[in-house]
Design goal:
The protein is an alpha/beta fold. The protein contains eleven helices and seven strands. The protein folds into two domains: 2-137, Rossmann fold (3-Layer(aba) Sandwich), CATH 3.40.50.2300; 143-206, Arc Repressor Mutant, subunit A, CATH 1.10.10. The protein has helices at 11-22, 36-46, 62-72, 87-95, 108-119, 127-136, 144-147, 151-161, 166-173, 177-191, 196-205; strands at 2-7, 27-33, 50-54, 56-57, 60-61, 77-82, 100-103.
């Protein structure tokens, strides 16, 4: 039996997917949530085979949930289901270890078959796309320290490497200076670094320069 967990902030979407899966003899929906916080808390305990995650949520992202849950239990496969065809989100999904990235206009039968394939351990992300994204982020994208960073934190890392002050980063990203300070503290802690200069050296040494961060 394939155990599935659903995360979407729209009840109608969750109900529709649940009803689609409930008629399948080999699939069981073991839980659902409308927020990233609840899903991150509950999924590791329920241990589904596949988590179907909405990319954009009021309190975060299903991509962040995928990364956080898989850092605890990498046996749980993540399938991102979104309304947005976004290269940035696709890149974040790759870095978060998602097994698939699907648009919500997918046919029901295709979603069911995709869940089965992902449960078998298959990756539905195009190999060429993954290779290109990994090349853009250098050969160290599998560094667990990078995987621990959210897309927002990776942008902060890029700006740190550019030598921007917290105020300049805040102006660039439309964030309060205090918020930027908290992000910088989190980034350095997750990377195991003590100073901003060390972060800049890491980015330069590992070829992680990203023009999209500006």
């Amino acid at each position: 039996m394939i155990r599935v967990y659903l995360l979407d902030d729209h009840e109608v979407v969750r109900r529709g997917v649940r009803e689609l899966l409930d008629v399948e003899d080999d699939i069981e929906v073991v839980g659902e949530a409308s927020t990233a916080a609840e899903a991150t808390r509950r999924i590791p305990a329920l241990r589904p085979h596949v988590m179907v995650l909405d990319a954009r949520l009021p309190d975060g992202s299903g991509i962040d949930v995928c990364r956080d849950v898989r850092s605890v239990d990498p046996s749980i496969a993540g399938l991102i289901l979104t309304s947005f065809d976004d290269d940035g989100a696709l890149r974040a999904a790759v870095l978060a270890g998602a097994a698939g990235y699907l648009l919500k206009d997918i046919r029901g039968t295709q979603l069911v078959n995709t869940i089965r394939r992902v449960a078998r351990g298959e990756s539905l992300l195009d190999g060429h796309v993954v290779a290109r994204l990994r090349e853009q982020w250098g050969h160290d994208v599998d560094d667990p320290r990078l995987a621990a960073l959210s897309p927002q934190e990776r942008r902060i890392l890029q700006h740190i490497a550019e030598g921007l002050t917290n105020r300049q980063i805040g102006e660039s990203m439309s964030l309060a200076e205090k918020t930027v300070k908290n992000y910088v503290t989190s980034v350095l802690a997750k990377m195991g670094l003590e100073r901003r200069t060390q972060a800049a050296i890491y980015v330069a040494r590992h070829g992680l320069a990203d023009s999209s961060a500006s």
